[in-house]
Design goal:
This protein is α+β, with helices and mostly antiparallel strands. The chain has three helices and nine strands, in the order E-E-H-E-E-E-H-E-E-E-H-E. A hairpin with a 1-residue loop joins strand 7 and strand 8 (119-124). This is Activator of Hsp90 ATPase-like protein.
Length: 160
Amino acid sequence: MMKCKSRKTNQWLLKINRDPYIENPNWDLIQNSLSEMDGQRLSMVLLRRKAKGEIIIHGGNFSEGKKIYYVNYWYEITDQLFQEEEEMGIEELYPYDMHFELVDDTKTEEKECQITISQLTVMPENVCVCWNLMIKAVKHFFDHDGELHPTLNWREFEMF
């Protein structure tokens, strides 16, 4: 008797630095990758939910004795998203490109910090978030099918 294998759709992709994508990662792998971020050897983790966008975490640099992260969300219609949406029968989320960044309301925009975003970059302190905010945002995104955490402060920004 032949058994039929059910084919699981690859909905999640994980990218660590510039390594190839890892299909359908589990939460332990995602969390371990995030915990290893140091702003040097490992400075970028990307988690993509097909047809719904991706959350990108940069940094892991130390600032005042604590690790800091820059977290943003991308949804770009020029990407494969339209094709993936159509293939998966998902209605488009936004009619145009959307970019959001996570903001820590307890910090100011006037003060700056250095964080690795491709290279060492100076960013406003309020977008350099702590582990707890970052992990809360990523865990919710993963657990809720690509949705941004509704009680965290996300602001839209323009890509040039």
